[in-house]
Design brief:
- The chain is mainly alpha-helical.
- About 70% of the residues lie in helices and about 0% in strands.
- It contains 19 helices and no strands.
- The longest helix has about 40 residues, at about 475-515.
- The protein is globular and about 65 Å long.
């Protein structure tokens, strides 16, 4: 090379670095031509269809409990507060990904006399299973067979669900434990399945497939509720509702084994060969890399804000709407539980409809605008969240005046909030190197739970209880206290919009780094961020900076 500069190899050396000089008088070794991995397009779409079907069953399995809750309470003699633990079981895993939790609003866990500060959102066995299992499955999904891990998860949750239908009323604690095990199995699938789709599709195809994948979350939630109620009515026994699902899940397991491949990590980005056989970073190095990936950090905080608001809405919105109807004189107050709440079904249908439409609109907007606007995905998320804040505020303040306007703005806010679910998954897949996407999914889910939906229902109820303690004891003051405690959600969702604006500042840089054809993560011992930038300049080949 001119100027006396030594020639640098473009292939990674033993230490995992790309662009190292072979030394004076030596030549670069001939490049190793790895065996390429390819899959016919129809096979990829068949695999995506199977994964979407399993995602549907995943959420049906959770929300089938909501349709038979009162029967479960009667059989196991579960109090209202303890029944809230079953609601917490179902919501704490799914609130961060699905806006359809209004289906659970009929749960009678609001304390005697309607006190929102009841301990129904206290930690359950599911929370412990979730926080322990999600990072574990993320680690396994990055280093071992993802197909085997998902198969294990399906066996785990279907077996626990089936066995729970045979538990004697004397062992109610065992029923709670079985629901926690179902959550553990669900964690394996929800953490790993999006990364498989990310390795089967890229760019517009991946955006569309993720949209379809996330549409089945609100649809599955609603079908689970309906199936639980329908099977109980037909058979006269709620236990058969839990025995139907394992049959469908057995079919899903067979389809997964036969039709879903286990692609090399990064296969769709034509990095599969290099990513599969190069330097293996440790879990701690993956976490350090993700901590320095600002697009991932800020988008995770934005997802946490979304989870916070969705958690509060999913738990308290049906009760808030019920009390609004009482204030308007449309329904008598309820002083003895369980209470019949038609607003739970109305809110559930509303959230399913807005969830489906919102996911489609968000994914299509991202697909179109990212071709012409750099960083379009986080800008779409930011604009939708910043627009959600005033909609939620108006839905709350107009409820005492006009219930119809409150429903309209609440539905509009949910629609805008739902626009982000597929888009944030696409952001994660585009800014994180393929070999640690499972860890990234697990960390995003865990952080979203700890700082988001795990505490927002309790915090909302706590604020309402504090406000009520200073006011006269009347149904109107109870309603106003819950209304004002909800206002914190408008502030939090606006903060989430700001987090996505910050994500847009780093998106292009982190996408380029994630597409660099290097081994290991950019934070591994052999590759630091400065080396990564030099490699793109010195190797001449660089990485494609094209939008994924």
């Amino acid at each position: 090379m001119a100027g006396g500069m030594s020639v640098e190899c473009s292939e990674p050396g033993p230490g995992g670095l790309q662009g190292q000089s072979p030394g004076p008088g030596r030549q670069c070794p001939p490049p190793i031509m790895p065996t390429s991995w390819s899959l016919p397009p129809w096979r990829a779409y068949v695999a995506a269809a199977v994964l979407c079907y399993i995602n549907l069953l995943n959420y049906m399995n959770w929300f089938i409990i909501a349709g038979v809750l009162l029967d479960i309470q009667e059989v196991f003699q579960i109090s209202d507060n303890h029944a809230g633990l079953l609601q917490t079981d179902a919501s704490l895993w799914h609130l961060s990904q699905a806006p359809s939790l209004g289906l659970l609003g009929h749960l009678p866990c609001h304390g005697r006399g309607g006190n929102p500060g009841c301990p129904c959102v206290s930690p359950s066995v599911f929370v412990s299973c979730l926080l322990l299992s999600a990072p574990v499955f993320g680690y396994l999904g990055d280093r071992h067979s993802r197909k085997a891990t998902m198969s294990f998860g399906i066996l785990l949750w279907s077996g626990a669900g089936l066995s729970s239908s045979f538990i004697s009323p004397r062992y109610s604690w065992l029923f709670f434990l079985s629901r926690g095990i179902v959550g553990t199995g669900s964690a394996s699938y929800s953490t790993i399945a999006p990364t498989v789709l990310g390795d089967l599709f890229v760019r517009d195809q991946r955006t569309r497939v993720l949209a379809v994948f996330y549409i089945f979350i609100p649809v599955g939630s609603g079908l689970g509720y309906v199936l639980g109620s329908a099977v109980t009515m037909l058979t006269g026994n709620w236990r058969w509702a839990l025995r139907v699902m394992p049959c469908l899940e057995a079919v899903a397991l067979i389809l997964l084994i036969l039709l879903v491949p286990d692609p090399p990590r990064g296969a769709a980005e034509t990095q599969g060969e290099r990513a599969a056989g190069g330097f293996r970073s440790s879990w701690c190095e993956d976490v350090r890399y993700l901590g320095k990936n600002w697009s991932f950090v800020w988008s995770t905080l934005g997802v946490t804000a979304m989870a916070f608001v969705t958690g509060a809405l999913g738990f308290w919105a049906p009760k808030f709407l019920l009390e609004a109807r009482v204030v308007h004189g449309l329904q008598p107050p309820c002083f003895q539980e369980p209470c019949s709440n038609p607003d739970s079904l109305i809110f559930g249908a509303l959230t399913i409809m807005t969830g489906v439409i919102g996911v489609i609109l968000g994914a299509e907007a991202a697909r179109r605008y990212k071709k012409v606007i750099p960083g379009a995905e986080p800008l779409i998320c930011a604009s939708s969240l910043l627009a959600t804040a005033p909609c939620l505020y108006l839905a709350l303040v107009l409820a005492p005046t006009t219930l119809l306007a409150s429903y309209v703005f609440l539905g509009l806010g949910e629609l805008l909030l739902s626009c982000n679910w597929a888009v944030v998954a696409d952001i994660l897949l585009s800014v994180v190197v393929p070999r640690c996407r499972g860890t990234a999914e697990a960390l995003q889910i865990t952080v979203g739970h700890i700082l988001g939906d795990a505490g927002s229902p309790y915090l909302t109820g706590l604020i309402s209880s504090v406000l009520r303690a200073r006011r006269p004891d009347s149904y109107l003051q109870r309603f106003l206290s819950l209304q004002q405690s909800f206002l914190c959600c408008a502030f939090v969702i606006a903060l989430g919009g700001g987090c996505f604006l910050l994500t847009a500042l780093y998106l292009e840089r982190d996408e380029t780094r994630a597409w660099q054809p290097v081994t290991g993560t950019p934070d591994s011992k052999d590759v630091d961020s400065n080396d990564l930038e030099r490699q793109g300049l010195l190797s001449g080949a660089g990485a494609s900076t094209e939008e994924p």
